[in-house]
Amino acid sequence: MASLFSFLRSEGDLPEGSNSDDLPLGELEFHTAGSEFPPNNASTPAEALALIIEILSHFLPDHDDSDPWPAPTVAAIEVNPQPLAIGNRRGTNNPASFSAVALTGGRLNAVIRFQLWHSDMGEVDAQTGILQTALLEQTDELWRAGVLRLNAVGSAPAEHVPSLDVWRKTADYRLLYEYHHQDTEGAHSLIARIPIHAHTDQEDELTLVTDEMTRWDNETAPTLTLRGPQLIRRLSVLAFTPAPTPGNTITLRRTFDGAIGDPINFATLPDFFSGITAAGDPVRHGEIVFATVTDFLDALTPIGSPLALGDWDEDLIPDLYQPYLVAISPPLHLFNVAERLDLICEGDIFDASAVVYAQAKR
Fold first, then answer.
1. CB-CB contact of 58 with 72 (8 Å)
2. pLDDT tens figures, 246-266
3. Would you list the DSSP string of 65-105?
4. Is 96 left (phi over 0), alpha (psi -120 to 50) or beta?
5. Which of 84, 77, 81, 83 is CA-nearest to residue 153?
6. What is the CA 114 to chain-centroid distance, rounded?
7. Domain residue spans in the chain?
8. For 48, which of 179, 326, 338, 351 could close a Cys bridge (C-beta 3.0–4.6 Å)?
9. Is the pLDDT score of 184 beyond 70?
10. What is the DSSP letter of 119?
């Protein structure tokens, strides 16, 4: 049988489109809102198959408990896992500029069977036509959900079931589904500082090597200091903040060695960045103060989905870290080594169990 729809294309080829809420396809109503499709995130073929069933269940007709026929179903009758690439690895992802995530995934080649019921033979045949039209209407939404190809491979004639005195009809489709996963590959944390121990004849020495990133938690919360000369183009954060969230005050300050007097205080983060990056006469001694860690995070822009990294609170559940990013445009220019940007956590440790990674990037 000819392909119902078949498409293998890049995401850039997709039109924006809009979701259809109700299809004018007669009296029978189908659930076809593509926006309700689950996120394409599975780590195993079994999880991917469950997602396929959940996606295609949106196309089943409504069923009321008072209907004298069984509820419609969708099920896999053949499943063949396929590799996505070497090691099923799609690449790497840098959420908010943190190099922490491997992009993995896989593909499933499967035959899916829709089973439809009604007390009237004509109605059960009509349901099959509505199903096919609904799938066609949602081609782009299915692509975004991971269904790369869908072929109609067979539809049996309506069959009367005497024991129930109803009609049953099946429709089979072969699909190619690609599922995606973000994998931290067992990492429990990011490397924010490297301790170097040196043993000499006189004494043991400890040196901490850091770069443009700091880690705050309920054990330590060192200030992130970036000195010139350099251009800083963005501030990024990766945060795990379960309730109760830390109540520490967070201060972001642009200053310089030997600054006299209190820094100019800004009310909002956009005002702060506008002031310290102003052309000609930027504020060189200014700050913005956030009353709590939550206020600080609320001022940033969340990007992407959370990623699992370790179990800091030891609740036997992987911790979910939300990435945040703020672009600094025009970039902050620290002209010499005396000028600096400080991100300060009051108290030197969080007052609740949480972890925040913060970094500024050129």
1. no
2. 999 999 999 999 999 999 999
3. TTSSSPPPEEEEEEEEEE--SGGGEEEEE-GGG---EEEEE
4. left
5. 77
6. 31
7. 5-183, 212-361
8. 179
9. no
10. S
